[in-house]
Design a protein that fits this description.
2 domains; alpha/beta; 44% helix; Rossmann fold; 4-stranded parallel sheet; globular; homohexamer; 220 residues; 12% strand
Chain lengths: 220, 220, 220, 220, 220, 220
């Protein structure tokens, strides 16, 4: 199951459609929006508004699903969700960064506006990956997360100016643009949601989940 | 104003009484518990239960107070609170670690149980201070956060075995035990709440607050 | 295809049998030993003896297979193999560390003898993960990589003394012991070869591979 | 008491006047220049010339004052002064960096010339803060440490090009320009001397000082 | 003895001639090319082609020489050679970076093409020196490793734009250009081969060699 | 020329006698004690007492000597001396750590008392080497820096408990004990003074010195 931490039904539908293409019927996957959340996650306040809805989604669906993906490039409330369920939980930022680091020397995470760069940097640092990749924004920014050309331009800069060898499409809403951009850019372009699926379906098939002995121990 | 992120009124009263001793009437300080929160913050789930109540405390009191302290050793929801108000906000873990690092080569944060060590380590790392201090728990742990003797024994170990030169009383509930323990241990012992007060009253007097240009920009 | 960088046919057979159990017929996987290599990879000299055989295995099989796993806990010649083929290549040490870091606060890689600890530490450092996990050996070491009890004892120490929350079975030869040990230890126990399969099958299904623009560019 | 490690009486007077404004008569503060020191601290040699005079200032005034601030952006001889007195000692670079790191994602320390950048970088590194802030100089440099416009331009660049969210006025001589620049720049601007006062008056009120058990132990 | 890991006899002759100038007859030094190696080391594949020839050079010459230098800026197979001989072994990249770090705040290693920058960055990281120096390439690159003017231009940029205080001539083929460039640039310019000689002749005279107790223990 | 930063003539004579053995008449070397310094460097105050005398030694002898070694394990006033002379300057701690890091996976610097451990740790950190080595003291400490047996016991612990592969005799006074201890311990044992000589004589022969363009620029 994929949790879209915002309440945007259109983005939820895009994600659903795209993951089904990846799944090819081999496994079942359902993407749900978060009730009470903002339409777009762009601040710590937005993240806080997703807390109650995300917990409810997990509590309600824990028995029916084998694992959870948090489909937002900020990995909102990831530690929390890892803690409250025994099922595997994967954030798309964490999954895409770790996969990217196995595919090339340095990755760039494309950001839509300058506003999100420090927050993404804090996330990269959280995963101990500040030597392996960076957040990239162009001067003008990206007006819309489906604007292929502006994403291309930002990624191009990251490759030519900063030595990026792998591109991560940060925002879950960019899902599906990966293959087109990869052809144009000549480097691997990763869709975070698919990266999340790779990890979570692998964990499910393997039968392992979050360690419950320490940092993510169930309360009570 | 001091936000106690849990709902324990007894702990709130202890904190209130202790900060008044420090204030000596020179400034006004009020400690409030968080409605709807757990009685004790011991997990990411507990932290998530404090979100709504803490936001409400800030929204309601922003006009009447000059700054906020989050009085819990986990610095719960600190980034969020820094973002949603223009008044200065200080977490007691962050404040005490930064002050401790100016007083000696290495600090130890006393933990009551092994369960909280990885979470505190993640916090130390977040503040880029993993080379400057560490979380310490004794084998038996500390049965009660007011148990002076057990805190003393854990601190003693941190000094003798791990080279701690400064002790931080992690939990806001330990407030007031600092001076007694300092005499016995022979090293500075820091109460996080007082450290928070040092920083927040200084910032208020100086007239500076959180930067609103990037990571903690107000939404909308 | 799985490359066993040593020439031990028995270990190769154990790996083959174990990965087939994981694959459940959903995909084809073949494990081959490396001609001219040592029977066990325990030094840089052993790694150097695998170079020629590993390159040949890749050149010969590149057309017939969709991706490669290097099945040795030292990730021998991983950068080289990533460079010489356009197909995805995964080392079991890298894959298991990155997956482990998503499942708990700290992982321990079980080593059979003290001799391999510095080399494994160098590998952990190479992947920027020295803050996330460590190599662990018991005082007596482990006499044989199939000795379940001795592996259990070493893992137990790593959990109790060093705060490990996830265990990695470093050596490809330990494959298959993961589920038994997980039950006894109460924390996730990862078989590097399966972790490699999770990543490489995911990458194949997704259709991405190593970036060929910089560090791993094909040499004419 | 504030130690100006150079012998410039004019700068000493500016500092004295500015801290009195901050103190508002609530506490007594005296700034003294260092006999035998250079007029400006711009090299390790200058720092070495301050050693004797600074020690004498501490020995003579230890009984009459409750704490010391070293008012130079290079924190000259800070470890030494922390060691030789039992009273709290604060360097303005250390204090301002630690406060800045609580107010925003990244700080910039404004430098007057390129010459001082590597030395400031070494200082930032010493305090484990190279991931949290950086030294900034403009191409032309700043001709005079009271030149408000040139300081503004350098700070502006640091914000726009390098993502600084907080500005530190490195040099004690820049004291008093903070509020004007803050209004123009729209981010917190910190005067190191005031930051030092916040910490040292807090420590004095709290009754804690440098740990005397290890690195800063008194040499009989 | 100096091992040139490539098979280029011309470069071998240049190195031989240059080290003899440094030796001034005070010690004997012989530079040999590696049989079966590529003419230029520019990839992991090239490094792998040098393995067999380099091992043979060491096995054959171990009795007749007191120590080994690996004369290629990629330090190819350095861990391996350190392991297989009891004589001291020095890589020119490692030696030059460690010497450079004692001569100035930050060093730049001049690269001929963009292609080698990520590989050199990985090497700098391996030696824990990413905070002390960096790899530098100009936009156009350097057409030929003996092209003094292009090397000068790249070094100039590293000094003016990135704050380099010491220049390392990465490629063994650049040997001998150091003194001319030093005069023009006004900063120390280090020839890696000479740096290797400083260390290895010092170790020989002193009588110490690689530790054989752990990471570089002789196999068998 | 070797500067002994303390005023102990006996230690000076031991150093002089030992370096002459190493020099074997191939170069001239003179060790001088520092006037006005403490008899032993054990604190920042001691370091400050050496400042004037060390500067005078350099000013007086700069014309007659080709380079300087600072012969104390604390590298006292090293940045200062690097700045004030154009001749090469080497600290024995820096030189021995950098050489040690080329000889094995991890080094231990033997300390005589617990008191000096934090200060040495700060020095190791200064040189970016905290991942490569550590300061080691035994429980009882070492009563006298010429006590071979106690040094042996501390080194033994560092090897067996902490994985040290190379031993550094921190204190210049331990000079000459290296070869005896190396035989007993079975790992390289480095005398800092000899390491300093390796580097400084190499630099002199090569004709390079400290970069004068930035951090260590001469102050008019």
């Amino acid at each position: 199951m994929i949790i879209n931490p915002n309440s945007d039904l259109e983005m939820t539908a895009i994600i659903q459609s795209n993951v089904e293409k990846y799944a090819k019927g081999e496994f079942e996957v359902v993407c749900k929006a978060t009730l009470g959340a903002s339409k777009f996650i762009g601040s710590y306040e937005d993240i806080s508004k997703s807390v109650t809805g995300m917990k409810e989604l997990v509590y309600k669906n824990e028995k029916d699903f084998d694992g959870f993906i948090i489909a937002c490039g900020a990995d909102p409330n990831l530690d929390l969700i890892k803690e409250i369920t025994v099922k595997p939980v994967v954030g798309i930022a964490e999954a895409s960064m770790k996969i990217a680091s196995m595919l090339g020397h340095r990755f760039a995470i494309i950001q839509t506006t300058k506003r999100f760069v420090p927050n993404k940097e804090a996330l990269i640092y959280k995963y101990h990956m500040e030597g392996l990749g960076f957040a990239k924004v162009s001067k003008k920014g990206i007006s819309n997360y489906r604007n292929e050309e502006e994403i291309f331009n930002t990624a191009k800069l990251a490759i030519e100016e900063d030595g990026a060898e792998v591109i991560i499409l940060s925002c879950a809403g960019m899902t599906g643009l990966d293959r087109i951009l990869e052809k144009k850019l000549g480097v691997p372009v990763l869709d975070g949601v698919i990266c999340g699926l790779i990890i979570v379906t692998g964990l499910i098939k393997y039968g392992v989940s979050t360690s419950k002995i320490g940092r993510f121990k169930l309360r009570r």
